[in-house]
Each structure stands twice: as C-alpha cells, then as structure tokens.
Amino acid sequence: MCALKTGERVKEQVLGVYIPDERRYRWILVDATPEFLSGEETPHRVFSTFTDISELKHFEQKLEEKRVHLLSIMESAADGIWAIDKDMKLTYANEVFKIDFFKFVGAEIKEGEALLPLMPEAGKLFWATHYERGLRGERFTFEFNATFTNGEKRVYKVNCNPILMKEEVIGLALFASDKTRERQYTQAIEQQNRQLRDISWSQSHLVREPLTKILSICQLIKDTGFETLEELELIPELLHASEEMDQVIQKIIREANHSKK
C-alpha cells in the first residue's frame, strides 16, 4: 500500500474493482493513515478505511448522462438560451445566444461575466428591469426589438423563468425566439388588407353607376317585353353598361394584384 511504503497519508482515493459475477465495477473510497513508532521514519502500520461508493458513483454517472443530454438539447435548439445568477452574471449560454449577443453588442460573453455592463446604454435599463422582475419570482414573456451593430433589426419573443432551489430564486433561465420573419409576414398581410380595403372603398362607387344602368335596363325589359327590344335599342345600352362594369372590375383586380407584390 502506498501509505505503508511512503509514510504519506492517502486521502479519499477511489479504486475500481471489477466483479466478474456482477459484470460491473465496485467503487471503493480509501483513506489510509500511517502510524510511526517513536524514533522510526518508516510506518509501523497503517489505519485504513474502505467505503463502498458504487451507488454514489452510479448516481453521478446517471446525473452526468442527463446533464450531457440536456446540454445537447439546448445546444441544438433554434432559440437563444441563457441563464443568469442573482447577480445577473451569466451561468450558461448556448451557441445561438452567444452569436446573437455578439451581433448585438459587438463583444463576446463568457460564463461568470456580468451581462449589463456589456449592454448598450439604451438597453441597460430595459434588461435590468426585466431581470429584476424575474428574480422576484415572476414568470413572464416579453418582446425585444434588437438592432445589431451592422444595422440589422430583429424581433425576439423572450420567455423568462425563475430558477428555484428550495423555493428560493437563485437565478433565471431565458429563452429567446426569433420572430422577425413572422412579424414581417404579419405586417405584409396587414398592409395588403389595408390596401384592399382602400381599393374596395374607392372603387365601389365606380361599380354602382354601370350596375345601376344594367339593373334599370333589365327592369325596363321586364316591363316592356321582348318584342320591343329592337325598337327601344336597349341591347347596345346594356352591352355598353356591361363593358363599363367589366373595365371597372378589371381595374380593381389589377390594383389588388399590385398590392400583393
């Protein structure tokens, strides 16, 4: 044994012993303290303790597997994910957050660093307010409009979730989803709807005039009878009014198609 040969104490050394019948290792925690006789430099004997920590080792392994699994999920997510402690220092950030944060502030962020000092002055109060709100134990969602250092604009939906330990808030976990394209699509649809409403309002009276003529001629035909059509020369009038209405409809279609581009 090392302690007996060297005379030095062995503390909390872990040994793995393979058990063939169980097809697994048993993990032993060893402590050894040498004892010397008076005037001698070599140990007389060693007091040793052996503690089976196999279950603890197994638990640690399972915990590490879960940690790696969770880390893999967060790193493969499309959202920016980060966590801060009670002092608003970064405790975790996935690659998506790190990339977007660099684009936003022009500086890299590392775990253990405070976030607010790196923020642009215009954004410090905004983020300090929301971080403080979350650290008081509130779960909430908010929207953040970011302007990157290259001028690019992004819209994020941010979910803020307090991290609790024994009912005490020890930090925050935040998830930021990029909603820029979704917002652009929504705004484009709203713009098209406004244009279509404007077209409908401005062109409706143009449709009424030829439509009124057509309805009047139809009523006259109904009242007069088909025998007098040639004498009254209503067919050309009816055709003319129909052509006017067709032209108005075609104009509305062209303007509607133009508004979609």
TrEMBL record:
Molecular function as annotated in GO: phosphorelay sensor kinase activity
Residue ranges of domain PAS fold-4 in the record: 75-183
Gene3D superfamilies to which the protein is assigned, alphabetical: PAS domain (3.30.450.20)
Any Pfam family the entry gives: PAS_4
Domain of life: Bacteria
NCBIfam families documented for this protein: sensory_box
Name listed for the protein in its UniProt record: PAS sensor protein
Originating species: Nitritalea halalkaliphila LW7
